[in-house]
Amino acid sequence: MKLLKMKIRNFKSLKNIELDFKGINIFAGGNGVGKSSVIQGLLLAKTTAEQLSEESNQIEINGPYNLELGRTEQILNFSATDDKISLEFQTENKKLNLEYEVDIYEQPHTLTLDNKKTKNIDELNNINFNYIGAERVAPSKAQFFDPQQKLKVGYKGEFTNHVLSRADYLQIDIVEQMKHKDGLERFSTQVEAWMRTIFQDFRLKYKEIKEVDMVSVLYGKEDSNEFIPQTSTGFGITYALPIITAGLLAVSGEQANNILIVENPEAHLHPFGQSRLGRFLALLSLCGVQIIVETHSEHIINGIRLELSHAKNTDNATINFFHQIQGETINSIISIKENGELTNWPSGFFDQEKQDLFELLKIKRGKIS
């Protein structure tokens, strides 16, 4: 089951916006223009479905899914004509409606769900959300077990080490289409093989420290028997590992109806690695995982374009370019043609290099000082 459409009204800078979803959905645009707000809207809907009970229709806006929305007065659109926030979704099966009442004085940290205007919210419990935020955990010598024993890497990648260990123990098997030829059947070796497409000669191994409920992951090189702790490397490997791990879990027989949401996958990666990670995300989408990726990297986008063009499946992707007019978020739709070219290139969409090179050319010609 996939998301097909989403409408957001009166949420932060999103006065009234509608999005169409495909297999892989790219959110691009400048800082502070509303990209993250769309993702927060999705996560708010998901946490609403999980929090809602017969006893209470109060929804916390801070905590679940790493949401830190602050106070209700900060999330109600500044030009709203009423005190209501609404989210609408269209899935392959049903239409979902959620409407919240905002009381900035009596309920500064919760929203009240209007049960009369909310429909089919349980449908969200049939979608398996995997969310990896922009702020991920730094390299560490070990990570704690997930106390809930879920096969989820965590919003910050904080349970990635445990997932590698537990997935091997459970003999998690991924779909044939995503099995890397250089990896063995064991889940962790498949993660290792896909990581090697980003970091050449990469190896990993893990060690459970059961006395303290922790798992240590060590990194190595193919031409060496020596392994070193995460803390002896930079951030790039540790930031990419949760994405590869969560992606392969999403194409395993253990999970279905998956949506993988990744913010800033490019963080701390060389352009080569960014492009390869984009291609990996595109491959996941071709296996049925619905991908939502917020990025400031043209290399991530180009990797996606390349992989989908090779697969002759560019219809599987859409790019939402967000910008603002008088404080209100607007999204422009960019599609990918069969040959990988983009249908349009709005001003501000990864055109900074062109502008800088043009200015450098003028300096070279002595036209400006």
UniProtKB/TrEMBL annotation:
<dbReference type="InterPro" id="IPR027417">
    <property type="entry name" value="P-loop_NTPase"/>
</dbReference>
<protein>
    <submittedName>
        <fullName>ATPase</fullName>
    </submittedName>
</protein>
<dbReference type="Pfam" id="PF13304">
    <property type="entry name" value="AAA_21"/>
</dbReference>
<dbReference type="InterPro" id="IPR003959">
    <property type="entry name" value="ATPase_AAA_core"/>
</dbReference>
<feature type="domain" description="ATPase AAA-type core">
    <location>
        <begin position="24"/>
        <end position="301"/>
    </location>
</feature>
<dbReference type="InterPro" id="IPR022532">
    <property type="entry name" value="DUF3696"/>
</dbReference>
<dbReference type="InterPro" id="IPR014592">
    <property type="entry name" value="P-loop_UCP034888"/>
</dbReference>
<dbReference type="InterPro" id="IPR051396">
    <property type="entry name" value="Bact_Antivir_Def_Nuclease"/>
</dbReference>
<dbReference type="Pfam" id="PF12476">
    <property type="entry name" value="DUF3696"/>
</dbReference>
<feature type="domain" description="DUF3696">
    <location>
        <begin position="314"/>
        <end position="360"/>
    </location>
</feature>
